[in-house]
Amino acid sequence: MTTFGWPEALFLFRAAGWTLLLTAIAFLIGGLLGGVLAIMRLSRIRIVRRIAATYILVIQSIPVLMVLFMSYYGLSLFGVELPPFLAASASLAIYVSAYLAEIWRGSIESVPFQQWEASASLAHSPAQTYRHVILPQAVRISLPPTVGFLVQLVKNTSIVSVVGFVELARAGQLVNNATFDSFRVFGLVALIYFAICFPLSRLSRHLEKVMNASRPH
Amino acid sequence: MPAVLIEDVHKSYGKLEVLKGVSLSVETGQVVALIGRSGSGKSTMLRCINGLEAFQSGRIEVAGHVVDQDPKRLRALRKDVGIVFQSYNLFPHLTVGQNIMLSPRITKNVPQAEALALAKDVLAQVGLSDKFDSYPDNLSGGQQQRVAIARSLAMQPKVMLFDEVTSALDPELTGEVLLVMEKLAKGGMTMILVTHEMNFARNVANTTVFMHQGKIWEQGPSRELFAAPQTPELQGFVKAGAQG
């Protein structure tokens, strides 16, 4: 049995790095996919709308854990062996895409329809309307809830520990198994999560205030 | 050939028929005021002219474009036909200058320097040269509406539509917007305006059209129409307006 000292703490900090990396990758890929889904969800073409809506509904209705199991264990049944990091990133990105798509759809829809009319009346194409008129306004509206969701994502990355990927939560378990110093180990783990999430939460609240102050009246 | 030609236009929302066969012809350089009670179909008629509302039957031709719902043809039409709305609808994330330069740049590929000169010119026309770098939120309603007019002018339209553009404004701000419109009218712009400003209709519009129950009820040279309304509906409307 080892005691909980600097090497163990460093191990946890390194694992926190993986948590951050996983969050970043899931957010980036999930964000790209989510952006496409949000616009598909608002398409004038019914079948496109339906596909996006179904995808979002399905993903939001099953636990991330199941997506993870399916991509890690499920695919291996068909001979596709994803490394844990890849399975974890992919599953989280899928989860992120469904939620961001809904957040962003709401943001796009909350831009007043008169903006669409004004833009169309100035001979802009639908793509130009999105790019120059709607999206810049929607992005501002979406910032607070998007950063808020990012906080959830940081915490939810802990789920991928079940497929053996060593991020912060899994690292905490490993150190605890070796030291049995649960209080200090998980105390530090919790502290690291807090140190990442608290500033983000504050940022989200700050953005909300700024957005409310600059709302046109 | 008239600048705007409307022939027997019918439009319904479901079972409710809001335009029951409207025909109207507007010559180049003419100013036409559409007046009538709310629900008479005047705003709907105006919005049909630039394709913001689709209609079921009839025919509209404006500045040489036939109005239908084909996106490409609509875009071509809207380069030649401007519209100004009651609620200004400026783009709040862009400065006044950017609001004005955006459309010429992206729809007509006007070079930056030329767009800038154009923006300064139209802003001067509406008397707001000093507001180039302001954001719409920092302007009064009257100033925002003048910017909206400038934004429309920057597309160098052949016909301009005005949809109750002073209805959201306090009385003291209404005047500055009407002044800009009067200047445009004197400059020879072809204009169709839906308005509740009876004095403006009488004094500036060549022709006033009174709409009632989805039809053109009465029309004629503005001064004659207001001086001697023929139908009891217009007589009542003019009288109510004079009192209010």
Describe this structure in words.
The complex is a heterodimer of chains A (217) and B (244). Chain A has a single domain (6-213), classed as MetI-like fold (Orthogonal Bundle), CATH 1.10.3720.10. Chain A has 8 helices and no strands. Chain A has helices at residues 6-41, 46-61, 64-77, 84-109, 113-121, 126-156, 168-179, 182-213. In chain A, helix 3 packs across helix 4. The model of chain A has no long low-confidence stretch (mean pLDDT 91). By secondary structure, chain B is an alpha/beta fold. Chain B contains 9 helices and 10 strands. In chain B, the strands form 2 sheets. Chain B has a 6-stranded mixed beta sheet with strand order 6-7-8-3-9-10, sandwiched between helices. In chain B, strands 2-1-4-5 form a 4-stranded antiparallel beta sheet, covered by helices on one side. In chain B, helix 3 runs parallel beside helix 5 (141-153). The N and C termini of chain B lie far apart (39 Å). The A-B interface holds A 114-115, 117-126, 128, 132-133, 136-137, 140, 214, 216-217 and B 50, 52, 71, 74-76, 78-79, 82-83, 85, 87, 89-93, 102-103, 106-107, 136-137, 151-152, 155. Chain A: Its main location: membrane. Chain A: It is found in: Cell inner membrane; Cell membrane. Chain A: The chain crosses the membrane at residues 20-40, 52-73, 85-104, 183-201. Chain A: Belongs to the binding-protein-dependent transport system permease family. HisMQ subfamily.
CATH architecture of chain A: Orthogonal Bundle
Shape of chain A: flat
Give the SSE order of chain B as H and E letters: EEEHEEHEHHHEHEHEEHH
Compute the CA-based radius of gyration of chain B.
Answer: 18 Å
InterPro entries (chain B): AAA+_ATPase (IPR003593), ABC_ATPase_HisP-typ (IPR030679), ABC_transporter-like_ATP-bd (IPR003439), ABC_transporter-like_CS (IPR017871), MetN_ABC_transporter-like (IPR050086), P-loop_NTPase (IPR027417)
Pfam family, one (chain B): ABC_tran
Subcellular location (chain B): Cell membrane
Family (chain B): Belongs to the ABC transporter superfamily.
